[in-house]
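Q: Predict the assembly, please.
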Amino acid sequence: MDGVILWHLGPLPITRTVVTTWALMGLLGALAFAATRRMTLEPGPRQTAIEGIVEALDNGVHAILPDAPNALLDWIGSLWIFLVIANLAGIVPGVSSPTDDLSLTAALALLVFLSVHWFGIRSAGWRAYLRHYLEPYPLLAPFHVFSELTRTVSLAVRLFGNIMSLEIAALLVLLVGGLLVPVPILLLHIVEALVQAYIFGMLALVYIAGGIQSHRAIPSSPGPIPP
Amino acid sequence: MNDMTWFVVLSTVVALLAIGIGVMLPALAMGRAISQAIDALARQPEAEKSITRTLFIGLAMIESLAIYVLVVVLIVLFRNPLLAYLLE
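A: Predicted assembly structure:
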């Protein structure tokens, strides 16, 4: 559960999670760099695939927040891409997925927590953003703060718990059964990895959208849809 | 029975009970959420996208409750901080 220490860099222990994360980051960065060279107006198959991915991420973000700023698209999109790759890395033999370490998921959740305030303050300004803590009634401000803390913790624990429990389940079945018996569990692992990456990014998006929209009036629900 | 035996027996029994109950209740909640979502989907098929999105987010929230139970149970079984007092 806690990262296996591979070697020490001076006083700093380097865990397996750090190595895997940096390797994945390097891989993704190199892929993104290679994919965006020589872009043409009439895309070939490779560029079409990349554009499809970017457009899917774009649609996902704009479905929640139609006027999303570009920085938000970058942040949520890279979160989605990284988490899909990081969760699926556990399937590769010899590699353990970096998201089964609470340190990594806690770091990501902390970034989400900070970005909620960053985007909220940037779109509304200090005063309007801070005022929403006093919104229904000033007495409820501690509950706002408390809910922000608990939802950050739950964001971290949810991703960590899901990935770790799947790995432990596969390991237990491997111990009880034989060599190929955990394969169905690994198939479930693939589905769960994709779902959890989607959920993490979507919840981050919903929280950030809540921060951005906090100073606006709640839009009235549209009337009944005509038959 | 000495202290260690009691500790092992009690933590195993409690962990099994906790995971049993802690999975049962979120399962009921998830079943209810899904049945309501399918109800809404049958009534308004054109709202499929937003219903599915909200359903997924809600399911993740409910599911994390079961995950909390799992994490606590694993801590009790493998990393019980109170074991140190017993071993002293």
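Residues 141-176 of chain A form the longest helix (36 residues). Strands of chain A lie at 5-9, 12-15.
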